[in-house]
Amino acid sequence: MGPEALEIYLNDHLAGATAGQFMSRHLAEHHRASSHGGALRRVADEIAEDLRSLLEMMDALGVPAHRYKVYAGRLVEKARLFKLNGRVTRRSGLSSVLELETLRLGIEGKSLLWQTLLSLPPAKGLDRARLQDLLDRARHQIDTVEGMRREGAVTVFG
C-alpha cells in the first residue's frame, strides 16, 4: 500500500486527535474548580499542541488532511453524551471515570503514532527529536490521566 497506507493511518489518527482535543477540553472545563483542574487544563493544551504537530507532520510528508476525518472525530466525541451513566439529567462520577479511561486510551494511541513515525526511515524528513519529545510528553500525559482515573474510580466504586 505504501504512501496510501500512511495517508489513511495519519488521517485516522487525525480523527482520534480531534476527538481527544474536544474530550480533554470538556474534562478540563468540567473539573476546572477541582484539585485536578490545572493538570487537566495543561493536558488539554498539550493535546491541542499535539494535534497541530500532527498536522504539521502530515504537511511535511505531503499527506492531505481529510476534513471528513476531522468531522468524524468530532462526532465520535459527541457520542459520549449518549452513554448511560445511571443519571438522566446530570453527570455522575461514573461519567468522569469513563471519560478519563477513554482519554487515556486515546493518548495511548497517540503514543503509538509517535513511535510509528519514529520508526520511519530518516529519509522521510521528520524531526526525530521532536517526535521523541512528543512521545515523552504522551507518556507523561498517560501517567497524569491514569492517576486521576484511578482516584475517580476509588471514589465512585468505593
Keywords:
158 residues; mainly alpha; 77% helix; globular
Structure description:
By secondary structure, this protein is an all-alpha fold. It is 77% helix and 0% strand. It contains five helices and no strands. It is globular. The chain starts with a helix and ends with a helix. The model has no long low-confidence stretch (mean pLDDT 89).
In short:
The protein is mainly alpha-helical and 158 residues long. Helices cover 77% and strands 0% of the residues.
SSE layout:
Blueprint: H1 3-30, H2 37-60, H3 67-78, H4 93-119, H5 128-157
Tell the overall outline: globular
Structural class: mainly alpha
What is the tally of beta strands? 0
Instruction: Summarize the amount of helix as a percent range.
Output: over 70%
Characterize the main sheet: none
Radius of gyration: 17 Å
Distance between the termini: 50 Å
Number of helices: 5
Succession of helices and strands: HHHHH
Mean pLDDT, all residues: 89
Relative strand content:
under 5%
**Regions with pLDDT < 50 over 5+ consecutive residues?**
none
